[in-house]
Specification:
Shape: globular
Bound molecules: nicotinamide-adenine-dinucleotide
CATH class: Alpha Beta
Radius of gyration: 18 Å
Strand content: 5-15%
Strand order of the largest sheet: 3-2-1-4-5-6-7
Number of domains: 1
Number of strands: 7
Number of helices: 7
Distance between the termini: 41 Å
Amino acid sequence: MTDFKNLFNLKGKEIFIVGGSGLIGSQIVKALEEFGAFVTVFDLDAKYKNKNSKTKYIKFNCTNENSIKNFFKNYIKKNKCPNVFINASYPITKDWKKNTFKQINFDSYKKNIQLHLNSYVWLAKSVAELMAKNKIQGSIIQLSSMYGLVAQDPYLYKNTNLSENMTYGVIKSATIHFTKQMASYYGKYKIRVNNLVIGGIEGHIKGSKKKQDKNFLKKFNLKVPLKRMGKPQEIPSSVIFLASSASSYITGSNIVIDGGYSII
Ligand SMILES: NC(=O)c1ccc[n+]([C@@H]2O[C@H](COP(=O)([O-])OP(=O)(O)OC[C@H]3O[C@@H](n4cnc5c(N)ncnc54)[C@H](O)[C@@H]3O)[C@@H](O)[C@H]2O)c1
């Protein structure tokens, strides 16, 4: 008989999260801990965030080929293969803000695809291989964006402190597709691969410490059926769902968390 009350329990689960020190990642880590998981964060920023936290923080560069090789060769050899792998990283070049249609150059475009898309693809695929080898019926969760589903509206950025980004949609739409491709292939190993499609979240503008300005928020919120941006703490519940046996028959899917933005 199914014990429905405990479907979301993560007690004893080994969970690795890349980018767990970020705006969204840090909220995911907090929730995973509260649901009883053993969490390890792999991030460029590996400072302990919370004194009482049992989470391990490992300094890791997900875009560096040697770091990735070491991660699989040395770290996993000494430690357990994870039951759940989450990628919440957001690697960018220093000139990320110049990835607009007008300002972008080919080198920056290629570098950002390499840093962000290629690391998401390679890490997820490598973890899936490891899970299969260790006979772990794991769950892999990739973070994507509503801008992998719908195009950015240039009007939103006019006279604001934000700008449209040509590369972002290429990366995030490919992540959505690759999740399906992986789910299709690794289903035979009972490994599930799913994707969070996230909308506009309150917080810093990527590549800057500034927050979204009032003019942008006013225009953006009007386009969202729920009439507001999301908060980083509204993301983890879907991660708990996808990480746990509550989602045991869900793979290759997108959970869209965007206040309804992408439906209209
Ligand atoms: N914030 C939003 O509005 C939003 C909206 C939709 C989707 N997303 C997606 O959610 C994910 C997380 O976004 P966020 O806003 O929390 O980003 P963030 O910049 O706050 O956090 C990203 C984390 O990744 C880490 N990181 C960056 N480069 C790294 C590298 N080379 N190696 C290891 N770690 C590295 C950073 O140190 C940081 O802790 C991204 O995939 C992003 O595209 C965010």
